[in-house]
């Protein structure tokens, strides 16, 4: 049994404005009011424009829900129009910054090199990166999912020291399972999540590898989360579509009750 605390995180993607965000987080707080939070960590990852509203609500009501950003600039300040920096996110007391989500890799050409710079920017600003990795359908069909994903892990963690690496969250999100309703089997998830932990052990030693939380993401719902979470190297879920329905996300967070 590992003592890693599962992290159930809702990636809202480009959904919910700042007013809708308040209503949504209030619903989550209500749904989780009697929850023993010791056993599960809950986080929401709203669009940048919602973060201040979420912060105010979480602070005001002393909620145990954490929050973070869906992206972070590799730079801390300067002439980078449209970017949002680590110091800005830290000032909003974000806990997390997603790095290298497949939608950013796909639509914004984010490379492993850029993801590595963003991982370092997050650590530099005391934010925990959630580094997303995972293969597309072609790679999966060719049976190269492990090698492909481990190369992304290597790239994202280049020159990241062990004392930082042990706190990172890695999200394995097979691209073919995102938003498609096509969920990886628990065995598929375990195969790659286990391989990721193996690579972390090679890079940093087993003790560090055993501390890192590895999430699965891709069409996670209340009906499939428990089986996925039962796998030894899966320490949480990164939930897209289902996290927009507060009742459904609460059920996902309560996966142990399923
Ligand atoms: O991309 C995801 C979370 O980051 C997964 O999205 P879905 O849960 O909608 O498949």
UniProtKB/TrEMBL annotation:
<keyword id="KW-0963">Cytoplasm</keyword>
<comment type="pathway">
    <text>Carbohydrate biosynthesis; gluconeogenesis.</text>
</comment>
<dbReference type="InterPro" id="IPR022896">
    <property type="entry name" value="TrioseP_Isoase_bac/euk"/>
</dbReference>
<protein>
    <recommendedName>
        <fullName>Triosephosphate isomerase</fullName>
        <ecNumber>5.3.1.1</ecNumber>
    </recommendedName>
</protein>
<feature type="active site" description="Electrophile">
    <location>
        <position position="101"/>
    </location>
</feature>
<dbReference type="InterPro" id="IPR013785">
    <property type="entry name" value="Aldolase_TIM"/>
</dbReference>
<feature type="binding site">
    <location>
        <begin position="240"/>
        <end position="241"/>
    </location>
    <ligand>
        <name>substrate</name>
    </ligand>
</feature>
<keyword id="KW-0413">Isomerase</keyword>
<comment type="subunit">
    <text>Homodimer.</text>
</comment>
<comment type="function">
    <text>Involved in the gluconeogenesis. Catalyzes stereospecifically the conversion of dihydroxyacetone phosphate (DHAP) to D-glyceraldehyde-3-phosphate (G3P).</text>
</comment>
<feature type="binding site">
    <location>
        <begin position="11"/>
        <end position="13"/>
    </location>
    <ligand>
        <name>substrate</name>
    </ligand>
</feature>
<feature type="binding site">
    <location>
        <position position="219"/>
    </location>
    <ligand>
        <name>substrate</name>
    </ligand>
</feature>
<keyword id="KW-0324">Glycolysis</keyword>
<dbReference type="GO" id="GO:0004807">
    <property type="term" value="F:triose-phosphate isomerase activity"/>
</dbReference>
<keyword id="KW-0312">Gluconeogenesis</keyword>
<feature type="binding site">
    <location>
        <position position="179"/>
    </location>
    <ligand>
        <name>substrate</name>
    </ligand>
</feature>
<comment type="pathway">
    <text>Carbohydrate degradation; glycolysis; D-glyceraldehyde 3-phosphate from glycerone phosphate: step 1/1.</text>
</comment>
<dbReference type="InterPro" id="IPR000652">
    <property type="entry name" value="Triosephosphate_isomerase"/>
</dbReference>
<dbReference type="Pfam" id="PF00121">
    <property type="entry name" value="TIM"/>
</dbReference>
<feature type="active site" description="Proton acceptor">
    <location>
        <position position="173"/>
    </location>
</feature>
<comment type="similarity">
    <text>Belongs to the triosephosphate isomerase family.</text>
</comment>
<dbReference type="InterPro" id="IPR020861">
    <property type="entry name" value="Triosephosphate_isomerase_AS"/>
</dbReference>
<dbReference type="InterPro" id="IPR035990">
    <property type="entry name" value="TIM_sf"/>
</dbReference>
């Amino acid at each position: 049994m590992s003592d890693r605390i599962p992290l159930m995180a809702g990636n809202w993607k480009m959904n919910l404005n700042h007013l809708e965000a308040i209503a949504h987080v209030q619903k989550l707080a209500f749904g989780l009011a009697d929850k023993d939070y010791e056993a599960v960590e809950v986080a929401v990852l709203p669009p940048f424009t919602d973060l201040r509203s979420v912060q105010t609500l979480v602070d005001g009501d002393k909620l145990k829900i954490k929050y973070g950003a869906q992206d972070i600039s590799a730079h801390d300040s300067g002439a980078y129009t449209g970017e949002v920096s680590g110091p800005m996110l830290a000032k909003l007391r974000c806990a997390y910054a997603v790095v290298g989500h497949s939608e950013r890799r796909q639509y914004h050409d984010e490379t492993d090199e850029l993801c590595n710079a963003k991982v370092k920017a997050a650590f530099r600003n005391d934010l925990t990166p959630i580094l997303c990795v995972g293969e597309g359908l072609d790679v999966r069909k060719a049976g190269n999912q492990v090698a492909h994903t481990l190369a992304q892990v290597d790239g994202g963690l280049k020159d990241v020291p062990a004392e930082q690496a042990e706190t990172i969250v890695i999200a394995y999100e097979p691209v073919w399972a995102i938003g498609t309703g096509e969920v990886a089997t628990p065995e598929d998830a375990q195969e790659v999540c286990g391989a990721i932990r193996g690579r972390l052990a090679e890079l940093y030693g087993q003790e560090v590898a055993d501390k890192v939380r590895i999430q699965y993401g891709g069409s996670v719902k209340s009906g499939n989360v428990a089986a996925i979470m039962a796998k030894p190297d899966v320490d949480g879920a990164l939930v897209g579509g289902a996290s927009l329905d507060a009742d459904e996300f609460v059920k996902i967070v309560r996966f142990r009750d399923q």
